[in-house]
Design a protein that fits this description.
Blueprint: H1 18-36, E1 41-46, H2 50-53, H3 56-68, E2 73-78, H4 87-100
Parallel strand pairs: 1-2
């Protein structure tokens, strides 16, 4: 059985570092195990973001999963820099193109007073 799961997060609310990536990955793995049982192999594809995927914390987490016996093997693969092969990235490009073509309406920052002169 193979399938693709993608997460989108609002980085203005959360963050975009290794803690967020590990938390989402852990959530996903728990849910998949509850639904489908245990897997022997996990293959993760990641972009080349050093802040999210090349931090030692992610490597430690994946090593922990193997040592704990959750998986026999985990492959962490990186997409070539400047290229996007994932479905999520291609779809995001279409969405971004749509938003770039729309009229933008900006609102003043909170607390800014607006005076209307007569």
């Amino acid at each position: 059985m193979s399938f693709i799961v993608s997460f989108t997060i609002d980085e203005s609310i959360g963050g975009s570092g290794p803690n967020e990536v590990i938390s989402l990955l852990n959530y996903l793995l728990i849910r998949l195990q509850e639904k489908y049982g245990k897997f022997h192999l996990l293959i993760l594809w990641a972009d080349n973001s050093p802040a999210q995927f090349k931090e030692c914390y992610l490597f430690f987490y994946l090593d922990y999963l193997v040592r704990k016996g959750e998986f026999l093997r985990i492959d962490l693969k990186f997409l070539l820099e400047g290229h996007s092969y994932s479905i999520r990235d291609r779809r995001f490009g279409c969405i971004q193109q749509f938003f770039n073509s729309q009229e933008k309406i900006e609102t003043p920052p909170p607390g800014m007073a607006i005076n209307f002169a007569k």
